């Protein structure tokens, strides 16, 4: 005879509902008296309203109302709060990548007929995004010399709506005079948006220098593990925040709270990591400058880096990124062989994780407004958390093997 295991489930429980209903309506909350350090992971698509009045009182501008998981849950809200606080901002919005955050600035603030200014040292996909909107959506995009400073005023037209900045450019490392550009823009009613990913919001505080919008690729130091893609837009002005938030809602953009939780887990040690990357990068950059194979080291803390005086004035650190220009006597094939022979430096984009990375760039093809003064090949290094002696030995061995003793 078979036993009927379902029988007890068919019997109503004490509250009159059956097991299947009670398992759905268990209404579990964190018990009072339970405390722990991590921010709880609050996954949700649907958010429940206590009554219809609460639902009908929804105001999309009100950031303290819970509306729908796409827009925020307590986990993503806590990350937004911490990121806004880090940069001294008031509002933060999260995006599924740094590039999606950049895209939100365009779609939130620019419409057909408007004009946008982009520095010649901008992250290439930002340039591509601008070019795409120019081709397909009737805006104009113009590129400017990142060292233009106050001279930006002469480029501003009545229809200029946004000026992008990147400080320093994450490949070529020029450091613009951010306060001068921000002042000139503000005097003419134009918004400034900085890609502040290089500094992670730790080493440069855009709002102290008059910038309106700070974009972060959280993919890098904030995540710290090379395993999360996310971006943020931090702002101080309510109206600018609402325009960006509206665009984000209309485009249906959201982030995974599990990813938020990973970033929240990494934030407490970000400053320590940043400082460790900074020290190791400085050691290697200083050593590379002495090598006969290297024509120039591009590091904002070095005196000959364009905009070094702005770096000294406005930044408190540099992190793990710098580039070198090889002597022009080496062919690209030799440089490629040098890169491929590195054992500890992995070939790959981005930065901010524990592992060292290397990427060659063809800079002349990435610029349109300013001539590139160097003739040799540019290679960007990201210095990870390996022992710096091993990293130096790795580079030295590959230099010897492929570029001669
Ligand atoms: C300067 C800069 N900004 C933004 C981004 C975009 O970040 P994500 O990779 O999250 O789209 C990158 C990515 O490499 C970057 O280098």
TrEMBL record:
Q: Which GO terms describe its biological process?
A: L-cysteine catabolic process to pyruvate; transsulfuration
Keyword presence, Lyase: yes
Q: In which organism is this protein found?
A: Pandoraea communis
Keyword set includes Glycoprotein: no
TM helices/strands, residue ranges = none
InterPro entries cross-referenced by the UniProt entry: Cys/Met-Metab_PyrdxlP-dep_enz (IPR000277), Cys_b_lyase_bac (IPR006233), PyrdxlP-dep_Trfase (IPR015424), PyrdxlP-dep_Trfase_major (IPR015421), PyrdxlP-dep_Trfase_small (IPR015422)
Q: Report the Pfam families cross-referenced here.
A: Cys_Met_Meta_PP
In its UniProt entry, what is this protein called? Answer: Cystathionine beta-lyase
Q: Any idea which residues bear N6-(pyridoxal phosphate)lysine here?
A: 220
List the molecular function annotations (GO) for this entry. cysteine-S-conjugate beta-lyase activity; pyridoxal phosphate binding
Q: Which UniProt keywords apply?
A: Lyase, Pyridoxal phosphate
- What is the catalytic activity of this protein? L,L-cystathionine + H2O = L-homocysteine + pyruvate + NH4(+)
Q: Which domain of life is it from?
A: Bacteria
Family in the record: Belongs to the trans-sulfuration enzymes family.
Q: What is the lineage of its organism?
A: Bacteria, Pseudomonadati, Pseudomonadota, Betaproteobacteria, Burkholderiales
Q: Which cofactor does it need?
A: pyridoxal 5'-phosphate
């Amino acid at each position: 005879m078979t036993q009927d295991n379902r029988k007890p489930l068919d019997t109503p429980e004490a509250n009159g509902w059956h097991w299947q209903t009670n398992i759905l309506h268990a209404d579990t909350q964190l018990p009072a008296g339970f405390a722990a350090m991590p921010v709880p992971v609050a996954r949700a698509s649907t958010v429940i309203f206590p009554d219809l009045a609460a639902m009908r009182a929804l105001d999309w501008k009100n950031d303290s109302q819970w509306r729908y998981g796409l827009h925020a849950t307590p986990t993503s809200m806590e990350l937004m709060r911490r990121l806004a606080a880090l940069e001294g901002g008031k509002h933060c919005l999260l995006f599924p990548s740094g590039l999606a955050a950049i895209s939100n600035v365009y779609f939130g603030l620019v419409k057909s007929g408007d004009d946008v200014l982009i520095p010649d040292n901008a992250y290439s996909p930002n340039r591509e995004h601008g070019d795409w909107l120019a081709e397909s959506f009737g805006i104009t995009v113009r590129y400017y010399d990142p060292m233009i400073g106050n001279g930006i005023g002469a480029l501003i037209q009545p229809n200029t709506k946004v000026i992008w900045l990147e400080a320093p450019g994450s490949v070529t490392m020029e450091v613009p005079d951010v306060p001068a550009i921000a002042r000139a823009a503000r005097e003419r009613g134009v918004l400034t948006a900085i890609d502040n990913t290089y500094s992670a919001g730790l080493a440069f505080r855009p709002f102290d220098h008059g910038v309106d919008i700070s974009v972060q690729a959280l993919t890098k130091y904030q995540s710290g593990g090379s395993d999360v893609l996310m971006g943020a837009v931090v702002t101080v002005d309510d109206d600018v925040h609402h325009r960006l938030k509206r665009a984000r809602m209309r485009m249906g953009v959201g982030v995974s709270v599990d990813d938020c939780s990973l970033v929240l887990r990494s934030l407490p040690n970000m400053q320590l990591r940043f400082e460790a990357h900074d020290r190791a990068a400085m050691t290697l950059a200083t050593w590379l400058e002495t090598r006969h194979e290297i024509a120039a080291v591009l590091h904002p803390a070095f005196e000959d880096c364009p905009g070094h005086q702005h770096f000294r004035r406005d930044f408190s650190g540099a992190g793990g990124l710098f580039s070198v220009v090889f002597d022009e006597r080496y062919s690209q094939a030799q440089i490629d062989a040098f890169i491929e022979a590195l054992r500890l430096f992995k070939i790959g984009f981005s930065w901010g994780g524990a592992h060292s990375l290397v990427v060659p760039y063809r800079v002349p093809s990435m610029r349109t407004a300013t001539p590139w003064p160097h003739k040799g090949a540019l290679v960007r290094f990201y210095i990870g958390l390996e022992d710096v002696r091993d990293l130096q030995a790795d580079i030295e061995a590959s230099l010897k093997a492929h570029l001669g003793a």
